[in-house]
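Hey, can you fold this one?
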Amino acid sequence: MTTEPVSKSSRREQLRRLDRLGAPAKPALRGMGLCAVASGLLLIPQSALIATLVQRCLVDQRAPALSAWLFVAVAVVALLRALLGWCGQRLGDSAIETIQVRMRAGLIRRLFARGVPWLRRQSSGALSELPGTHVDSMRPYFTGYLSARMELVAVPLAMLGAVFSVDVVVGVILLLAMPLIPVFMALTGWGAEAASRGQLKSLTRMSGHFADRLRGLGLIRVYGRGAAELAGVANAAEGVRAGSMKVLRIAFLSSAVLEFFASISVALVAVYLGLTHLGMLALRSAPLTLGGSLFCLLLAPEYFAPMRRLAAHYHDRAAALAALDEIEQVLPENRESANGSGAASERSAGSPDRPVAVIARDLHVRHAGATQDVIAGLDFELKPGERVALAGPSGGGKSTLLETLAGWLKPSGGTLEITPAGSRVGYAPQRPFLFHGTIAENLLLARPDASRAELEQAAEAAQVMRFVRRLPAALETVIGERGFGLSGGEARRIALARLYLWSPDLLLLDEPTAFLDPQTEADLLRELAVFARGRTLLIATHSRAAMHVADRVFSLQPADAKRKVAS
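Sure. Predicted structure:
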């Protein structure tokens, strides 16, 4: 898999966007970093206390009782470092919780803003990865990389100053070793970022593939495609495994570079100090004490510890950048809603019983990827409070027109005006989406604050209670996703009851009486006529009984010429 190189300017912009995501939790992130810095700086007095204790007890032969305060001081410093580590962990957890909650809420808002037409063309499994895996992959960056970066800026310099005050040669060795490490790590780091980007793409594809196949598991079994789909999931998983191993190889190579230079530097310090104490190397005017040597030896590996931690979290930075890039590709910021002028289902709540007018002039509608219009040159007018039946043969564009008015499709030409602006528009399609849960929960989706009496009243009006009374738990009966366990007519009635609860100003109904017996159809249409009083109604139907409820019938034929009202 090839990955395009990222320019320095775009990488800097990505890092700025990544840091902006942490702005809501900036105080907590800064506190976490300061705890890490303070804990690292305490290593200097801790090492000095240990070195002094060894010097007094082993070299100066003083009684341990006379150095009791040193033991207490070492314990106090150790406890302080443990307390700082605990505080940093708590602050980091608080910060990442704030960041992730805001990110997920922002992603959901951006998903809704893209509109129904765009959402219907996407893989739901892949979209679910954005607020899930992609957001989770940013956690190590904020909780690990940022604090390690702050620690690297302050702690090694302080340690270097402390070592220089004891022995200049040791200080020079450490000073010369540090610049070499970032140079070689940067070379491997660029590869790690590219590999993380490719691995995240593979993970997204596999997760989306697997989630979509789970939803269609019944259909897969019916057509005997289980083995083939299992092989497809296995191939996708193999791609993720190969990508993960590539990222790990590069990450281990980066760590190997760091450990090589760090080990060489510490070994040089140890050899220099050993030769000095053996009298084989005299680069100092005054002999170095055992305590001073131990102090340098204790700080030498800790001098490289912040760089080690930064290296360990460097691939977390690469993974966070890759996740942010994937999110921005799918959901770019400041993107205008794709709903268009007919984004009815997303309109703000208006007062009920406010009739809506619809005017379409030379309207053209074409499905995504199609070469011909489904609706071409349509002139259509729906007056406030009018009830119109939309008739015509199957394939004539009735459902397409309703979806356009609901904002699910965007007109490809002409004008479409829904007035007054901000009106509630309710749409009950032929295949309504029902969630896994109780029937009552699916109804309350329209109005969660509805009372039980209002819920049952809407269900009664939509003839839901006619079949619900036969169920073991009535409205509390659990149904499967997409209405599994219900017939097509029952699912449509639940969608109609949900629309009743929402109380829209414009009602768009697509074959609400299909698959119903004559008596149920008559009862449903009678209640619909009562509910539609003071509202505007457009109902697509083949039923003569439904047409009699309307004030007039609009005949919609396949796209061939401009059509006028047929009464």
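The first helix runs from residue 8 to 21. Let me know if you want another pass with a different chain boundary.
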